[in-house]
Amino acid sequence: MTLTKTLLGAVAALALTSGAALADPAIIFDLGGKFDKSFNEAAFNGAERWAKETGGTYRDVELQSDAQREQYLRNFAEKGFNPIVMAGFSFATALETVAADFPDTKFAIIDMVVDAPNVRSVVFNEQEGSYLAGIAAAYAAKGDTVSFVGGMDIPLISKFACGYAEGFKSVKPEGKVIVNMTGTTPAAWNDPVKGGELTRAQKSAGSEVVFAAAGGTGLGVLQTAADEGMLSIGVDSNQNYLQPGSVLTSMVKRVDNAVYDAFTQGETLETGINVMGLSNDGVGVAMDEYNAALITPEMKAAIDDATAKIIAGEIVVHDYMSDESCPAF
Amino acid sequence: MSVQSEAGRQATAAPTASSAPIDAPAIELRGISKAFGPVQANKDISITVKKGTVHGIIGENGAGKSTLMSILYGFYKADAGTIHIKGQEVQIADSQAAISAGIGMVFQHFKLVENFTVLENVILGAEDGGLLKPSLAKARTLLKQLSDEYQLSVDPDALIEDLSVGHQQRVEILKALYRQADILILDEPTGVLTPAEADHLFRILEGLKEQGKTIILITHKLREIMEITDTVSVMRRGEMTATVQTADTTPEDLAELMVGRKVLLHVEKKPATPGAQILEIENLRVVDEQGVERVKGIDLHVRAGEILGICGVAGNGQTELLEVLGGYQTGTGTIRLNGQEIDLTGKNSDGQSRRARGISHVPEDRHDEGLILNFQAWENMVFGYHHAPEYQKNRFLMDNAAIKAMTQESMTKFDVRPPNPKLEAKSFSGGNQQKIVLAREIERNPDLLLIGQPTRGVDIGAIEFIHQQIVHLRDAGKAILLVSVELDEILSLSDRIAVMFDGKIMGERLPSETNEGELGLMMAGIAEEKSREAGQ
Amino acid sequence: MTKMPKWADAVLIPLISIFLAFLLSGLVIMAIGKDPVVAIKTMVQGAFGSSNGIGYTLYYTTNFIFTGLSVAVAYHARLFNIGSEGQAALGGLGVALVCLYVPWPHWAIALPAAMIGGALFGAAWAFIPAYLQAKRGSHIVITTIMFNFIGSALIGYILLNYLKVPGSMSTESTRFGAGAHLPTFHEMLAPLGIEFNKNAPVNVSFLIALLAAVGFYFLIWRTRLGYEIRAYGQSETAAKYAGINPVRIVVIAMLISGALSGLMAINNVMGEAERLIDNAVEGAGFIGIAVALMGRNHPIGIVLAALLFGFLYQGGGELSFWESIPRELVVVIQALVIMFTGALDNMVRAPLEKLFIALNKKKEA
């Protein structure tokens, strides 16, 4: 009975999807899968928000193999999906070849710059949001040591760390920022136990606030910080609610907005580099009821001040990826 | 039908039902048949075992003895036929049913937990309740009683691994008695025992018989049948060929019944004409991987055209002696072949270089060493000699066609049946497997042939052939070092006999000047004192 | 005395197993509300329906042939090498170094060099566990699986610190030069007038894989070394008796095994990605275990099993693409096939044996 019902429902759904207009947008998630509680899921949420608000339909697919990047890109492009959004920098190489083969299709890639006339490259100024997180940490810490736990050791994460250190040192120039990366393989994104160990080690080295930019590993960081009486800073999504009273703030990166925007613009997608920073709500620090008690007025003032100055261009936060070095380390 | 099985179930539940006729046979099997695929292991077998007797079942390997006993013990279900215990038909679905029907089984390979004590092993699976203590206490009293009654003295608190093989066997018997067995089946019980231990076992069995127990003895040794049984049944190719009173028969008759033709039980051979010294061993010592000294300084020599037989209970260093000579065990001391020293530890100490020096080796264990059971016969026929130039096609490939042709020839010459080079070794009978190994080693025309347990697990017909081949090789002027635990074999084949005990040579004898009794004592390590006593 | 004809053992059992696996998969697909018939159709169509699909199927197949042969070589010496994954990863490093640091004029010269590089690195990675097993008795299952992790970390480290394009976030090397580009089927077949999809990644490595399978046959069944490997695998005590040096066999068998895994890199690294990316092996080493198991450690079986898994990969990918069947479910289907063909082999075998015995009896009667 239930089975037939589900079956009928499925047939109906199938009819719906196959009857959909051909110019639907599509999104390809990275190997982590769309329910990774992090980057891919944020992208998925953006797509869902767009579908709900506009009533439109879209297609998505998750990767199983690296060889499928180009394959799926082509599949979507051949079937007339437009635009096609890719969640993740790993699509760059595949996109370079496919974009040239389909000049009439628009592509959007997140976290990477691909130079092609029909590609929109969405990059985030993570260093700006991290700078604000650093300021928050500096005000929250009584001493002058804070720390950072990164996921996999890649430049993008160093970019977070560098902005964080710079923000911290703008308040406490003589302070110390302990930086640890969880690992050098993708497994480093999902190792909460090691995240916890690193946090504990950092605490014993004097750290009072830990910023976790480490995907699933970060959940272990936040948990341990709460257990050890430290403060923590979440990443990507607003994670303040995870450990209320212990998470100082979250450095949010609005991947969902990037997907939502691309879907909304549709076939008329604006190509070129689309930088999402403080000025256009691409990044920021989350303030809500869960961390209200932790945010002091002078901290708030300093953050607001820095935000204004960054938007105005008075403060330029160093981008680690521009030269793979960090003056604040 | 339903009535029958009902009765059977009752009998299973209450094996000592008093309704049984008093004179009913202990066991009666009627028309038992069992097939494994196309192989008919048991064909319409009927047998009656009288209460209070020792009943021997004799037959070659694969004759169906073990299958029959497995049916009786509930491991297999017969395709046809019925089992009657004390006049009652019973269904024996599993070993539990067999035990409650009063059947006890002592396997060839003991089923004991090595690091448990005797007592724990005895009650294992027959505990009275969840708690061990009361069971153990009860068992202790019972065990003592049983030991006294049947000369089955064993220390109840000893660990199995510390016991000798003979004592372990007693534990198996005690296990069966503890489970109130009055029918005891022993499968090849003397295979692992010294002659003295075997004698003791037979005394125990006599005692059990006097107490009214019924004993079934499965063996392939004619001597044991003649010595202890009252009645003997002979099996051949799944059929029961005869059941006779032991007193009315002779070993020769039994052998003929087993094999189906006349068999020469004694090797016909001319006196040896020993030539030059081929093998000389001086002060050889072998320490095994566990650091135990297995060979404790022995001196031996073998001449061309002579068979030196080494007898001893298994595990007294003979295996290690063969391994050192075969090149896959290190040792210290001096070994010379044709006057030239052999490398015992260096890089020339392996099977290949031994073979190159003219030593061939028929190992004691053909399943684990002599053959690769999953290899086809032709692949086995070059095993160890696969580097020989005549088997190579070119630098890279072996000449499989040449090997197959050679195998075909050897198989015909050594009467391997079936003579099919493509058959896997495991598909041959024990005797034919041994012939393959023998053919391989003898055909290389060695100066020295090492041969261990040449007829273990080999049927009587093949034994005759193998013995002849060994004697032929001797007569061709080759030196032969024979290791066997079978005294008969040692006595009939050897030109000289050396007895090994505890890694040492107890002494040498000429076969014409010794007998089983003396050798048996030497094998048990007590001959030295005995002879000293005699001298004083 | 064989209970079953050989063809039944080699062909019928796997076919029935696969059929059962798909039957069960169909039920799973139904349970999530999809049409199993459509699903199977999508898979077959996606894997074999176009030259593009075939190209992807054969691309995966190539990987699995290499790792399947790798596992099988070791298995013949009764060594359970579950380190093919790591050995293939290291092979990728070898291939990448060869391709990156030499400006190759033509692929025909680059390929042999890359093969040597891949095989050498794969073999070197297998050597350490082999040595530990042979000399120290460390269990090869444990060491090889640990070496997968070490290998993965090592590749990550080298990529990150030495090979990565500065400023790029992807842990991947720069692209290889044009001289290291292997001809795809499109390029190979065009001169013959055969149109093959130009985007399909299958390339000349597929032929190398087939050659490796032929070489495998000769090695195992026709050479002295193969004879010794098989003898050692069947019985170590017998091998010792015959004068076969166990240390030598363990080490050599593992070296060959590692080399075969390493060779896989000419397909995925040199042929497809044309650069070294992190985690380039993507589980092909583990699939190799299933492939060897299913292929009964015989090259023909391995090639067929690899083709089946190539089909499962490509067809499964198409299934999740077109039918929106979650990729987790595709993995479930793949796992069912592995389970039925590998672990549950006896479930099919026992009744089939009985059937054949009954048939034989009837024939005799």
What's the pLDDT, averaged over the residues of chain C?
91
Q: What is the terminal-to-terminal distance of chain A?
A: 64 Å
Average pLDDT for all residues of chain A? 89
Helix content of chain C: over 70%
Percentage of residues in strands of chain C: under 5%
User: How many strands in all of chain A?
Assistant: 12
What's the CATH class of the largest domain in chain A, please? Alpha Beta
Order of helices and strands of chain A: HEHEHEHEEHEHEHEHEEHEEHH
Named CATH topology of the largest domain in chain A: Rossmann fold
For the sheet with most strands of chain C, the description reads:
none
Oligomerization state of this entry? heterotrimer
Based on secondary structure, the structural category of chain A is: alpha/beta
Low-confidence stretches of chain A: 1-21
What does this structure look like?
The complex is a heterotrimer of chains A (329), B (536) and C (365). Chain A contains eleven helices and twelve strands. Chain A has 329 residues and is of the alpha/beta class. Chain A has two domains: 18-124 and 257-276, Rossmann fold (3-Layer(aba) Sandwich); 127-252 and 296-323, Rossmann fold (3-Layer(aba) Sandwich), CATH 3.40.50. In chain A, helix 5 runs antiparallel to helix 10 (297-312) and helix 7 packs across helix 8. Chain A is globular, with a radius of gyration of 21 Å. The model of chain A is unreliable at 1-21 (pLDDT under 50). With 536 residues, chain B is an alpha/beta fold. Among the domains of chain B are: 1-92 and 219-261, Rossmann fold; 277-374 and 446-535, 3-Layer(aba) Sandwich (Rossmann fold), CATH 3.40.50. Helices cover 35% and strands 24% of the residues of chain B. In chain B, helix 15 runs parallel beside helix 16. The longest helix of chain B is centred in the N-terminal third of the chain and has 19 residues, at 132-150. Chain B is globular. The termini of chain B are far apart. Chain C has 365 residues and is mainly α. Chain C has a domain at 56-285. Chain C is 76% helix and 0% strand. Chain C has 16 helices and no strands. Chain C is globular and about 75 Å long. The A-C interface holds A 3, 6-7, 9-11, 14, 17, 33, 59, 61-68, 70-72, 74-75, 89-90, 92-93, 111-112, 152-156, 183-187, 321-322, 324 and C 30-35, 56, 59-60, 152-153, 156-157, 160, 166-172, 175, 199, 201, 268, 272-273, 275, 277-280, 282, 313, 316-317, 320-321, 324, 326-327, 330-331. Chain B: Belongs to the ABC transporter superfamily. Chain B: Its main location: membrane. Chain B: It comes from Celeribacter baekdonensis.
